[in-house]
Amino acid sequence: MRVISGTLKGRIITVPGYFNLRPTTDLAKESLFNILNNLIDFESTTALDLFAGTGSISYELASRGCTMVTSIEKNYNHYKFILDTALALGVKDIIKPIKNDVFEFIKTSKQTYDLIFCDPPYDLKELETLPNLILKKGLLAADGLLIIEHPKSISFSSNPFFYQHKHYGSVNFSMFQTTTPE
After folding, report:
1. How many domains does the chain have?
2. What is the distance between the alpha carbons of residues 56 and 176, in angstroms, rounded to a whole number?
């Protein structure tokens, strides 16, 4: 895994082989961030990375200048990996890993975020409810952007907050906003 752009561009992050994950591909990540570069001023953005896994998206967000990135991961080994990697990359003051269940975090969090990235397991039975859970809880700031990575078998286009859908190979991203984009 590598960081695509920003201050950490090119840094290689070696993930333990025993991690059973489906990381976002470099192609999908690079394509998504090319879109985000036109939508977001990273240097004034607070971000939330739900189902953070290895922290790949968190490192990318920190590298591009986000002021704060909260990474939620319930697996202790993955949480610890994010913590250790943020320290090794020199972004421990930006990336705040929290070991917690995503649904518990959504219920209890009082903070809002400018950007929320959510990469749940594709077989998660509650996957289709995530946009409404996040938006109804008020985690997304006004004019913020929610991105959900999902399999092609799911469509969020009928959601009233749906903004756009992008796909890159087998990776699909649906984006949501609480306000109408300019």
Report:
1. 1
2. 21
